[in-house]
TrEMBL record:
Keywords: Disulfide bond, Membrane, Oxidoreductase, Redox-active center, Signal, Transmembrane, Transmembrane helix. Coiled coil: none annotated. Belongs to the thioredoxin family. DsbA subfamily. The keyword Metal-binding does not apply. This is DsbA family protein. It comes from the Bacteria. The chain crosses the membrane at residues 14-38. Residues 50-207 form the Thioredoxin domain.
Amino acid sequence: MPKTNNPLTKKSGLSINVVLTVVVVVVAVVVIGGVLLFGRGGNGAPNQAPNPGQPVAAELLRKPDSNMLSQAPDGKVTVVEFLDYQCPACHQYYAALTKKVEQDYEGRINFVTRNFPIAKAHPLANQAAQAAEAAGMQGKYKEMYHALYDNWQSWAVAPSGDNVSDDQQRAAKLFDQYAQQIGLDLNKFHQDMNSPQVKARIDRDTADGTKAGVHATPTIFINGKQFETPQGVTYQQLSDMFHGEIDKALK
């Protein structure tokens, strides 16, 4: 197959592993539970923990102030996802897996999200991470996280539908709309997006992810052990496998 420069079909803009369909087809596949066709966003390097088979240290995966979608009193199970908001695979995981996991295990697991924007492949990834972190500074991280993914095609994809967008102005206007919808102070939101504090949080997440062996997004850990994603399975099979790992850890 000839090479292509389409950011929706290559792994973080550096190498092509698995050809992705255009967004409309991907959405259709999600709906019907079709076979996983996507490759994760990354640099093409092996995505392994520093010591394969050994859990990554909890303090590297989660900081005391890390953003959480769910929190469990006993803290028996902690899921950590390193994500890139503009990454097509991250959005597909959200639609097919992580949104449901968040709902199904609300209050039963710790679900931590960390930033790992891959700007070379996804020009708006860092801007979206800034929006999420700025919302978090007003106590609305979860709401912005969902707004970014639920409206992903509106800001993350070019109008043609076959490339990721690099339109920062369009994204900024849409992020402002989401901020208003979830009740943020818009002036503070703008200030926080460009603040040293938000930059430091994103840089820290990325550095921790790199130390943990993250090279591609999404990369997910369950109690420190990386969840390996097989190619060629259906979305339902992927969901069943992931739920099975969590259920086993909860016993």
